[in-house]
Amino acid sequence: MARTADHEQRRNQVAEALMAVVGAKSLARTTLADVADEAGVSVGLVQSYFRSKAQLLRFGVEYMYARSEARLLALAEKHGPVAAVRDRLALIGETLLPLDEERRRELVVWTEFLPATLADAEMSRLHKETTGRLLGALTGAMEEARRTGELPEDADPRAEAAALVAFVDGLTVHCLVTDGDFTGESSRAALRTYLDRLLQAPGSPPTTAHDTPRGTP
């Protein structure tokens, strides 16, 4: 058991080093030697776990997505029961935004990895499966919002979940690369405004999508 734990610790140490190097140098300029140096281990040790840079990158993607999912799962423990779906979705959206240094570093790496999913079938699969799980969870929340009257009766929960993912992803990219209007605080406010326009307070009279103005700030 101890050897297995040490094995996993070493792999995670290498994954952390990979994210640090990619965030500083870009994916294209990252080498196994860079990662080994950042992790404080030999190139041979890195190669004993990952036979190629492609394998290392795939593990890095899995590691990054696993951390993000763990953070989302921890929301309930941190905040307790949240009655309004709108408030729950705001917490989820904020967790996905680069609002602290750890998430910013992860999401810089995410923007570096995304182009690789176009050429690497395994990384594409990982990205699609992770996005699919997120969409499934958000679709469930939107369906609940429709039952409680927060979401208009004729709205499509899956489409609204996909739109929310796209909106948060767009905020993330601009928060990372655009100055001025896309600070952490303004991105948080934009997310809240988006959800306020989409959802209403629980128990309000039922509406349809035509009655509820939509759009981004």
First-last Cα distance: 52 Å
Total strands: 0
Largest sheet: none
Shape: elongated
Low-confidence stretches: 212-217
- The percentage helix is over 70%
* CATH topology annotation of the largest domain: Tetracycline Repressor, domain 2
Any chance you could write out the topology, listing elements then pairs?
Blueprint lengths: L1 H24 L6 H8 L3 H7 L3 H21 L1 H5 L5 H12 L4 H13 L7 H28 L8 H21 L6 H15 L19
Could you characterize what this model shows?
The longest helix has 28 residues, at 121-148. 26% of the residues are buried. The protein is 71% helix and 0% strand. The protein has helices at 2-25, 32-39, 43-49, 53-73, 75-79, 85-96, 101-113, 121-148, 157-177, 184-198. The chain folds into 2 domains: 1-51, Arc Repressor Mutant, subunit A, CATH 1.10.10; 58-217, Tetracycline Repressor, domain 2 (Orthogonal Bundle), CATH 1.10.357. It starts with a helix and ends in a 19-residue tail after the last helix. α2 packs across α3. It is mainly α and 217 residues long. It is built from 10 helices and no strands.
Keywords:
mainly alpha, DNA-binding, 217 residues, repressor, elongated, Tetracycline Repressor, domain 2, disordered C terminus, 71% helix, 2 domains, Arc Repressor Mutant, subunit A, BetI_C, transcription, 10 helices, AcrR family transcriptional regulator
